[in-house]
């Protein structure tokens, strides 16, 4: 949302005010924004956790259904759970959300709490990009009358889970108007690409890059020969209902925050949502780098990394050796073809060429 020139700029701030680290980060953020002439909005009661002079500078943030249209951005300080809470404000209003990580992995977060000063500058200068993420619309409907019983949305995933721990839930799954399979299972997940690194990842589903427009279906511990994760198209519609002989009723969860009972006679309908989650981005780093950093993946020995570090002096050395090898090929009759070929592949930093390692 663009603020009209000369009008008061407003940024919503959301965090867990029961944690000292969150209060400290929010205090520094609000102080920085206030010094730059930007007003912060907090949920009612949260301002009581701030130092008194600073608390007097903030304005109340309305409920998720009554948020001010003058807000240009929401900043959420916390883990992915806090960010998912923040989507309740921003999704319907098409408002960008900037996540600042105070948790552990924090896949949805863009920055760390140690970067507060830089974050303030980027907000004040509006120097951030906005990335769109797909969402899921969920509808619980009466099978006979077609009446809508309950509806919600999800940013990460919708899960259909068994209500009784010791029982399995039995469901019939339909995709695009055609029956797909029956599963006796612990549950079924339907996730966005964003959610593919959350619950679906723990359940054995694939990681889907955020720019892939898709819907993921992951059965949970299904007793069936065909129970692999499925990657569906963006226009696909999934319908699921309990089989009459199911040993237990089910529970529908959206992002682990909103739930409804699923019993015989009801069906759940899932499809891509009409609203997109707008995530503010401070960096253009590719998703691959985010995946490596968040999971701490081992990438030592990557050849491209060594080449990026090579100095001009290193490159001059490489060119000199290549020239000498070229001379050897024309004047050194004592070396075999294999020796010359192996020497041509060796690099001055001692890292063998991919061909030497047998890797492709």
From TrEMBL:
The reaction(s) annotated as catalysed by this protein in its Swiss-Prot or TrEMBL entry are: NAD(+) + ATP = ADP + NADP(+) + H(+)
Question: What compartments host this protein?
Answer: Cytoplasm
Binding sites annotated in the UniProt record for NAD(+):
80-81, 85, 156-157, 167, 186, 197-202
Disordered: region residues: 306-360
EC annotation?
Answer: 2.7.1.23
Ranges of compositional bias, category Basic and acidic residues:
332-350
User: Which residues constitute the catalytic centre?
Assistant: 80 (proton acceptor)
Could you name the Gene Ontology cellular component terms for this entry?
cytoplasm
> Among the record's GO biological process terms, what is one?
NAD+ metabolic process
Q: Does the keyword Metal-binding apply?
A: no
Q: What class of enzyme is it?
A: transferase
Q: Recall the GO molecular function terms of this protein's record.
A: ATP binding; metal ion binding; NAD binding; NAD+ kinase activity
Q: Which UniProt keywords apply?
A: ATP-binding, Cytoplasm, Kinase, NAD, NADP, Nucleotide-binding, Transferase
Which InterPro entries would you find in this protein's record?
A: ATP-NAD_kinase_N, ATP-NAD_kinase_PpnK-typ_C, NAD/diacylglycerol_kinase_sf, NADK
Question: What cofactor is this protein dependent on?
Answer: a divalent metal cation
Q: Which Pfam families match?
A: NAD_kinase, NAD_kinase_C
Which regions span the lipid bilayer?
none
Record's function text: Involved in the regulation of the intracellular balance of NAD and NADP, and is a key enzyme in the biosynthesis of NADP. Catalyzes specifically the phosphorylation on 2'-hydroxyl of the adenosine moiety of NAD to yield NADP.
Task: Write out the similarity annotation.
Answer: Belongs to the NAD kinase family.
Q: What protein does this entry describe?
A: NAD kinase
- What is the scientific name of the source organism? Microlunatus sagamiharensis
Gene responsible for this protein:
nadK
């Amino acid at each position: 949302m663009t603020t009209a020139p000369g009008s008061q700029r407003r940024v919503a701030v959301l965090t867990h005010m029961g944690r000292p680290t969150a209060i400290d980060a929010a205090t520094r953020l609000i102080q920085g924004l206030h010094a730059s002439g930007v007003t912060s909005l907090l949920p009612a009661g949260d301002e009581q956790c701030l130092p008194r002079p600073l608390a007097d500078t903030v304005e109340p943030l309305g409920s998720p259904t009554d948020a001010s249209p003058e807000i240009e951005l929401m900043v959420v300080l916390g883990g992915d759970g806090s960010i998912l809470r923040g989507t309740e404000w921003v999704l319907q209003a098409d408002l960008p959300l900037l996540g600042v990580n105070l948790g552990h992995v924090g896949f949805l977060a863009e920055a760390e709490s140690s970067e507060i000063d830089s974050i303030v500058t980027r907000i004040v200068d509006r120097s951030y990009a906005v990335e769109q993420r797909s969402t899921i619309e969920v509808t619980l409907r009466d099978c006979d009358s077609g009446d809508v019983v309950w509806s919600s949305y999800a940013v990460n995933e919708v899960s259909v889970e068994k209500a009784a721990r010791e029982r399995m839930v039995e469901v019939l799954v339909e995709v695009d108007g055609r029956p797909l399979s029956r599963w006796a299972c612990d549950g079924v997940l339907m996730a966005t690409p964003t959610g593919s690194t959350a619950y679906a990842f723990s359940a054995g589903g694939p990681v889907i890059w955020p720019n892939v427009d898709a819907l993921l279906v992951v059965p949970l511990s299904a007793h069936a020969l065909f129970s692999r994760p499925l990657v569906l198209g963006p226009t696909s519609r999934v319908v699921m209902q309990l089989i009459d002989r199911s040993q237990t009723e089910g529970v529908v969860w959206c992002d682990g925050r909103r739930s409804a009972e699923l019993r015989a006679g009801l069906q759940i309908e899932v499809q891509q949502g009409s609203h997109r989650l707008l995530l503010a981005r401070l960096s253009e780093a590719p998703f691959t780098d985010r995946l490596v950093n968040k999971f701490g993946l081992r990438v030592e020995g990557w050849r491209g990394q060594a080449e990026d570090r090579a100095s001009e002096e290193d490159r001059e050395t490489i060119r000199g050796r290549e020239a000498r090898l070229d001379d050897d090929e024309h004047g050194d009759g004592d070396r075999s073809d294999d020796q010359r070929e192996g020497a041509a592949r060796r690099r001055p930093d001692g890292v063998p060429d991919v061909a030497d390692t047998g890797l492709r």
